[in-house]
Amino acid sequence: MRGHRLRVESDVRRRQVDQGAKGRRRWSRLGLRARVTVTFGLGALALSATMAGLTYFTARQFILHERETAILRQAFVNASLARSSLRSPTQNIGQLLDSLDTLPGSLSVLEQHGQWYATSISVGENAIPPRLRSLVLSGTPATQHFVLDGSPQLVVGIPVPSGGFAYFEVFSLDELARTLRILALALAGAALVTTAAGAVIGRWASGRALRPLDEVSKAAETIAGGRLHVRLVAADDPDLSALAASFNRMADALLERIEREARFTSDVSHELRSPLTTLVTSLGILESHRDDLPVRSRAAVDLLTAELRRFQRMVDDLLEISRVDTGSAELSLDEVEVGELVREAAQAAGVGGALVDIDPAVAGLRLRVDKRRIERVVANLVDNAAQYAGGVTRLSAEPAPDGVRLVVTDHGPGVAPTERERIFERFYRGHTSGRRGTTDGTGLGLSLVAEHVRLHGGRVWVESGVGDENRFVVELPASDQDPEATALVLGTDGDGPGRLPLETPDAS
Amino acid sequence: MTNRLLLVEDDERIRISMRLALEDEGYEVDEAGSGEIALERFAEQPSDVVLIDLMLPGMDGFECCRQLRRSSAVPVIMVTARTDTHDVVAGLEAGADDYVTKPFVAKELAARIRALLRRARSVDEPSVLTFGDVEVRPDEGTVERGGEEVHCTRTEFRLLCELATNPGKVLSREQLLDRVWGYDYFGDGRLVDVHIRRLRTKIEPDPANPRHILTVRGMGYKLTA
């Protein structure tokens, strides 16, 4: 009850955080490496843009100031020149203006007694902004920036009351604007290059920093794949060695736990054997005196016998599985012909010869297998068919791309597609489990099939055949393939620690 | 004549149930709760077959079997809860002729005992079999190597006779199980392998590089002179 309420509360909280978390989640979906790259890139962009902006404005200020000073100086020089020239009455104003020393692109305009004179035809009185014009004509010197025909201009107006005229000079700032534009482009380009460089450095650095993580993830994947003895090598870097150490501790703990569980199963199975021995032996005595027993006791003994047999099989199966789990399963490999293997397995499983169908293409093929295990595989599949699918209709051997397939076909009903993998799990009973009450099954049969086949480096699956029937397919690799490719298999000859050397005809 | 069995087992209930079952099969059964008691009993009154549980308090089943072997070639069946190769092989190395795994069916155990007893008596081989410097006398039950007597258990002896009467012929493990252990076996080739090893240490000049008892890869064993 309490746990339930807690969960509800955390749900509410989760919803509240949801909105804010959405953006964050999208960001974190990018991946650490991409995020570092983007962050470095954005940082470089901000920094270089600021630097470029500052540079641009400082440079612009300086250049403009220099230019204005030069312009003003020249305008004053020209104004005083004009004043001294205009003292002589013979002086032609047009000639005077032409004779003035001006910067390239600048124009001179002069007003005397309401008359306007200019060095250019196109630029005259009208070109000068009215506000500045009136200001200067009223006796105040002034400067103003303005735009003429789309290009920036600076006009300087100097009233010369002693000469009775006002002198204006209009400077084109086109050149200056172009210079500033080029400067701005260069700075923007530099900023972009810096940004890209920042992103590249970010990517490289994060790649370097994340390389140990790559190793961790590889190791984790290997462990997930069942090879539990993989460990990380501790690096010199103190940060990384801590990571490696805690990863290895985790792997150790995992391994220990798995081993403990497997050992527990093994211990339980072994411990059960002593009472089982007494039970089996005593019941055997009762059974041999069965005829002396009253009818009701006889029925009870029969029940006990059947159930004890199932119990015993369950203990055997558990032990077999725990052996696979602890990695102490040992394959006793023999080279056998497929035809012989299948016929013997069929006989051991009680399948009539008429149901056995061996493709001539594989009959003579030699496989290196543990005969006992393969016979168990066939027997368990046959048992399964008998209990859940009306019995075996065919036991066949067919060629496979790199080995042979043993196929056990039954009457159906077919296994639902959603259960096709799950039926190989331990103690899994599917929708046909309604029959449990009458079966002798241990719930471990198919999972043992899967383990035995895996130990041989093969695969097992179920597919649907004609109509409602099931085809249980066991694919075994040809003998040139190394069964040790699967992680848990141990050798057949006793070269492992703690085992006595054991000579076998096929291992020496 | 009733055959006497010595049952070495520390679990009292298993012991009682086994005794009941084996008595039903027509044997006279002696009991021992530990290896030490078993050795004493055997010294007082030898049995025809000894059944030893491997997991005993104090002296374990392996040691009990080894000590028994020092003075006797009596057929020994070891009883084990573990089917791992290690235990089975170690038990056979200690000198056992056969093994059964708990829980076993009493009738099966009785059949194995019968097979061991039958083998111990059958005598129908030629008088002397020779290869290299080894002489086997089936009717006397003795093996000599270079004139010196070699002590073999009855199972080792039977195995050697079987190989020596078919020189140069490859015998599969199944054939040897059938002929030496006496009945259609469940096919545990480890029994044959360990006994072959034990034989080699007794009659081969260099057991690691056998000259007489050869392994034929994927097929079985054969004996050459």
List key phrases describing it.
heterodimer, A: 508 residues, alpha+beta, Helix Hairpins, Heat Shock Protein 90, 5-stranded antiparallel sheet, 5-stranded mixed sheet, 12 strands, rod-shaped, B: alpha/beta, Rossmann fold, Arc Repressor Mutant, subunit A, 2 domains, 5-stranded parallel sheet, 4-stranded antiparallel sheet, 20% strand
Topology, pairings included?
The complex is a heterodimer of chains A (508) and B (225).
Chain A: H1 2-29, H2 32-86, H3 93-99, E1 106-112, E2 115-118, H4 130-137, E3 142-148, E4 151-160, E5 165-172, H5 174-224, H6 238-288, H7 295-326, E6 334-337, H8 338-349, E7 356-358, H9 360-363, E8 366-369, H10 371-388, E9 392-400, E10 403-410, H11 445-455, E11 459-464, E12 470-477
Parallel strand pairs in A: 7-9
Antiparallel strand pairs in A: 1-2, 1-5, 3-4, 4-5, 6-8, 9-10, 10-12, 11-12
Chain B: E1 4-8, H1 12-24, E2 28-32, H2 35-44, E3 49-53, H3 61-71, E4 76-80, H4 85-93, E5 98-101, H5 106-121, E6 129-131, E7 134-137, E8 142-145, E9 148-150, H6 154-164, H7 173-180, H8 190-203, E10 213-216, E11 220-223
Parallel strand pairs in B: 1-2, 1-3, 3-4, 4-5
Antiparallel strand pairs in B: 6-7, 7-8, 8-9, 10-11
Helix pairs in contact in B: 2-3, 4-8, 6-8
Your description of this structure?
With 508 residues, chain A is an alpha+beta fold. Among the domains of chain A are: 238-323, Signal transduction histidine kinase, dimerisation/phosphotransfer (DHp) domain (Helix Hairpins), CATH 1.10.287.130; 329-485, Histidine kinase-like ATPase, C-terminal domain (Heat Shock Protein 90, 2-Layer Sandwich). Chain A has helices at 2-29, 32-86, 93-99, 130-137, 174-224, 238-288, 295-326, 338-349, 360-363, 371-388, 445-455; strands at 106-112, 115-118, 142-148, 151-160, 165-172, 334-337, 356-358, 366-369, 392-400, 403-410, 459-464, 470-477. In chain A, the strands form three sheets. A five-stranded antiparallel β-sheet of chain A has the order 2-1-5-4-3, with helices on both faces. In chain A, strand 1 (106-112) and strand 2 form a beta hairpin. Chain B has 225 residues and is of the alpha/beta class. Chain B folds into two domains: 4-121, Response regulator (Rossmann fold, 3-Layer(aba) Sandwich); 129-223, Orthogonal Bundle (Arc Repressor Mutant, subunit A), CATH 1.10.10. Chain B has helices at residues 12-24, 35-44, 61-71, 85-93, 106-121, 154-164, 173-180, 190-203; strands spanning 4-8, 28-32, 49-53, 76-80, 98-101, 129-131, 134-137, 142-145, 148-150, 213-216, 220-223. In chain B, helix 4 links the parallel strand 4 (76-80) and strand 5. Chain B is globular and about 50 Å long. Chain B starts with a strand and ends with a strand. The interface between A and B is large, with 34 and 39 residues.
